[in-house]
Amino acid sequence: MSNLKNIQNFNYGLEKIFPEADDFLPLLGTDYVELYVGNAKQAAHYYKTAFGFQSLAYAGLETGMTDRTSYVLVQDKIRLVLTTPMPNKENQEIFQHITTHGDGVKVVALWVEDATKAWEETTKRGAKSYLKPTVEKDEDGEIIRSGIHTYGDTVHVFVERKNYHGVFMPKYTKWESHFNPTDVGLRYIDHMVGNVGWNEMNTWAKFYNEKMGFANLITFDDKDISTQYTALMSKVMTNGNGRVKFPINEPAEGLKKSQIEEYLDFYNGPGVQHIAVATYNIIETVKEMTKRGVEFLYVPGSYYDTVLDRVGEIDEELKELKELGILVDRDDEGYLLQIFTKPVTDRPTLFFEIIQRKGAQSFGKGNFKALFESIEAEQARRGTL
Predict the structure, then answer these.
(1) 0.85 exceeded by the pTM?
(2) Sign of the CA dihedral running 298, 377, 236, 100
């Protein structure tokens, strides 16, 4: 079975239906995430080496793509597309995105049964069109894509794959590589977080509710997410089957500059702050990623002095979690383990979360204070707190 077919056999493990969501699209899952980067070849090598992604597909001059070069990486159900512009008058959008934002997420592509219907349903509700329904064909069949704008320069592209049997999509060829490090156990995208400007959280939560049929799963205010110095607010939006979750963060007033303000300053506007990827064994995943050079946020050892009093019995050895800096939280349905990388770009913008859910459907509210104090320590080192 090809990698393309694997995407059509999603098993998210902890799937939950949210009847309050008006799932008129509906969404079947995350198809791919595309980052615009300064050097796609080198970025691809980093994600293969450090994060355990495998080579999947390539598009460039050799495949008839004259305005850009793209490398597609895969790990289980996660697909990353890394794209760099070629000198061409048609791709000023990519050049401008990199100049303004640095390396960052441009496209959050969503897998749908009918891309034309998805575009019609969202645009008639007021979403701004990014890409009208477009049929792309080659000898392996056809893909239909359409798209809408969301916060900042980020877009959602709807991808219809049911009549395509190639490696990724037309103009892409299989990427053969002799260098394919073993994976690190990353399985699927759990959620993706967007940072928006002051007083914009409700606007974009309303967008996802009205334009895409999402429900508000949970809301965190500045009392939930604050430290001595900084604060933020967040609303978690989910589609009906729970496969696509988008927390939306905005800054809140604090004594110093919050991580959201820092992000907005360096990214020059709203954008995707982090990609949360799930694993079924976070200890082994984090050990392997650390060996490969991935840097994680430091968690003070004192966090572990009282964590079991708060979360109760867990399967893992606390000593091992402490050595790795893995956080633990519990809700009514179980517990979760999570850890956050330092930014993976030179600008303090995009980072990754590694998460293992053992029943919990929440987002680690009990860890917010420890996490944000760790982020503040990094901000202080950068001189941006």
Answers:
(1) yes
(2) negative
